């Protein structure tokens, strides 16, 4: 059996993130992953969801000092991805249901993938 998987990527503004995520949850989508990457002085955060082999991605682009609201109040398990994003990139994520405050991932360098905080301790979550 071959399944043709549809994938949609929607750019979302920071102020619309929680509304969009709530809508996906209400429509029966499950959270698959949250990934982050450096795009040259800013970050691209991709939130991936799935329902019936249809992948939907919400793409959020933020600067290094922009606070991102947690979606863990909607998808409880998101706290794992959000703590990882904070610890590796230094992105301040507010309202995480279980916030490890910078101690979730141990690395030789604090915020090893940060565009501005590499090795620093300026994260507001800590």
From TrEMBL:
Keywords: Ubiquinone
GO-annotated molecular function: NADH dehydrogenase (ubiquinone) activity
Keyword Disulfide bond: no
InterPro entries the record matches: NADH_quin_OxRdtase_su_C/D-like, NADH_UbQ_OxRdtase_30kDa_su
Domain spans labelled NADH:ubiquinone oxidoreductase 30kDa subunit: 14-95
Superkingdom of origin organism: Archaea
Protein name: NADH dehydrogenase (Ubiquinone), 30 kDa subunit
Organism in which the protein naturally occurs: Methanoculleus marisnigri
């Amino acid at each position: 059996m071959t399944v043709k998987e549809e994938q949609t990527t929607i750019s979302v503004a920071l102020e619309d993130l929680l509304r969009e995520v709530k809508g996906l949850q209400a429509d029966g989508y499950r959270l698959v992953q949250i990934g982050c990457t450096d795009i040259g002085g800013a970050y691209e955060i991709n939130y991936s969801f799935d329902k019936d082999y249809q992948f939907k991605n919400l793409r959020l682009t933020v600067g290094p000092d922009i606070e991102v609201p947690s979606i863990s109040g909607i998808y409880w398990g998101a706290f794992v991805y959000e703590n990882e994003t904070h610890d590796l990139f230094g992105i301040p994520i507010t309202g995480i249901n279980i916030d490890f405050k910078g101690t979730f991932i141990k690395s030789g360098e604090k915020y090893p993938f940060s565009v501005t905080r590499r090795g620093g301790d300026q994260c507001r979550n800590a």
